[in-house]
Amino acid sequence: MDTYDVVVLGGGSAGETVATTVARGGKSVAVVEQKLLGGECPYFACMPSKAMLHSAEIRHRIAGAPAHGAVSRPLSLDEGKLAYRAAAARRHEIADRLDDSAHARELRALGVALDEERLALTTLGPLDRRNLPRELLHH
Ligand SMILES: Cc1cc2nc3c(=O)[nH]c(=O)nc-3n(C[C@H](O)[C@H](O)[C@H](O)COP(=O)(O)OP(=O)(O)OC[C@H]3O[C@@H](n4cnc5c(N)ncnc54)[C@H](O)[C@@H]3O)c2cc1C
Questions:
Q1: Domain boundaries, the chain
Q2: Confidence of residue 118 (pLDDT cuts 50, 70, 90)
Q3: Mean pLDDT, to the nearest integer, of 76-84?
Q4: Which of 13, 57, 67, 71 has its CA 20 to 30 A from that of 102?
Q5: Which of 7, 8, 13 for a ligand 1 pocket mutation test, highest count of atoms within 8 Å of Cβ?
Q6: To which H or E segment does residue 32 belong?
Q7: Ligand 1 center to residue 37 CA distance, Å?
Q8: In this model, does residue 15 exceed pLDDT 60?
Q9: Residue 20, ligand 1, Cβ within 6 A
């Protein structure tokens, strides 16, 4: 049975930073993440929201191109629904198609142990060892 100096609960930006720092410091570390390594930022928050804002900004600039003297006539733009669909598809690409394997590879390369079963810890308050993945526990 493996034991670790540190077990990080949640593999989001904060958890990844802690795990990486601990591993680089020479301590053994495991991460318990219930959904996607990387947390909300790359898949649902920072990256996808910036992708949508970028698409909107480009569309806005194209619409304003004649007023800025960039073109002599108005450019024809897709209707909003079609453009939104294209922007959402790009957002999905930017969000790595909700694939966290690159995050997993980077952590494993540093020797960080990952909970493959994507278990969730469900206890509030002090940790109860009965809720920890078996492979993370002492006998
Ligand atoms: C729309 C939007 C845009 C944003 N844009 C930016 C930006 O441009 N720049 C910026 O710096 N920040 C931005 N943020 C904020 C950023 O997303 C958060 O600050 C960051 O994700 C917080 O990281 P975290 O690790 O604390 O939490 P999270 O990313 O939420 O990670 C926590 C992880 O813990 C896991 N977890 C939770 N409970 C359990 C459990 N019981 N057992 C196992 N695992 C568990 C979750 O599945 C999750 O993966 C944005 C947020 C939003 C909503």
A1: 6-40+100-138, 46-95
A2: confident
A3: 96
A4: 57
A5: 13
A6: strand 29-32
A7: 10
A8: yes
A9: no
